[in-house]
Design a protein that fits this description.
It is a single chain. The protein is mostly helical. It folds into 2 domains: about 120 residues, no CATH class; about 60 residues. It is built from 10 helices and no strands.
């Protein structure tokens, strides 16, 4: 199932890219097609050593770049979710550990930002915690998992442990809207999250390259705003459709 979902998200991205390209070619970029000629070297079967070296380089590049960014953003999210110190009634006496953590998060800078953005993401079926993760992941979408782990207090779950994965899933399934028993992560919500992150231009390095190649920061800003709006409307549509069908 995960492979099917991933393939479907790739297919969605390709379909939307083709649609956007068709619209732009008939609006902003109207005119005769420009010839493009690129000489290709002779094709040869790659050697195993070359393939392994490329895999090693790409893996290390991801760890050095994306991994560093994920760690940095996770630390920032943890700090925003921990400060300022909460004011608990009677010093927290009579509250469970989970209740203390929940109240601390609600009174933190991250919780306040999430409350502010919740009206924007509520039509997508998201609560303020998912909204916080979306905001934190705008530099790179890979950050969303680490951010959700911090927000939902999943940092103590060891993914390498036999029970780690199932414990993490149980935590997410048990998450409810504040003050209710209604679960947060339903199928329509999961679909809306995946569609949003499949379409939104959440990659700082890509936006920097666009600005460098076009010679203007207007294009990266336009790409970011346009794709974010498109992702929002698509995620809202899939959430509404899934809810209407009773998924």
């Amino acid at each position: 199932l995960p492979a099917v979902v991933l393939a479907a998200l790739y297919a969605l991205g390709v379909a939307v890219a083709a649609l956007v390209a068709a619209v732009l070619s008939r609006t902003l970029f109207r005119g005769p097609p420009q010839p493009f000629v690129m000489e290709l070297p002779p094709w040869r079967w790659p050697r195993a050593a070359v393939v392994l070296e490329r895999v090693r380089e790409a893996s290390w590049s991801f760890i050095a770049n994306a991994g560093t960014l994920i760690l940095a953003m996770s630390i920032v999210v943890w700090a925003l979710g921990s400060y300022p110190a909460p004011v608990l009634p009677d010093g927290g006496a009579g509250l469970t550990e989970a209740e203390v953590r929940g109240e601390s998060l609600r009174q933190s800078a991250l919780g306040r930002a999430g409350r502010w953005v919740e009206p924007v993401v509520r039509p997508l079926g998201w609560d303020w915690r998912i909204g916080c993760a979306a905001i934190a992941s705008f530099p790179a979408r890979e950050v969303v998992l680490g951010t959700l782990a911090v927000i939902y207090n999943l940092g103590d779950v060891d993914p390498g442990d036999d029970e780690g994965g199932s414990a993490l899933v149980r935590r997410l399934r048990a998450a409810t809207w504040d003050g209710t028993d209604r679960p947060v992560f339903t199928l329509p919500v999961a679909l809306s999250i995946m569609v949003f992150f499949a379409l939104c231009a959440q990659c700082a390095s890509t936006l920097v390259v666009i600005g460098r190649e076009t010679g203007s920061w207007l294009w990266p800003v336009a790409v970011f705003v346009t794709m974010t709006a498109l992702a929002w409307f698509a995620a809202c549509a899939i959430y509404r459709l899934g809810t209407a069908l009773g998924w």
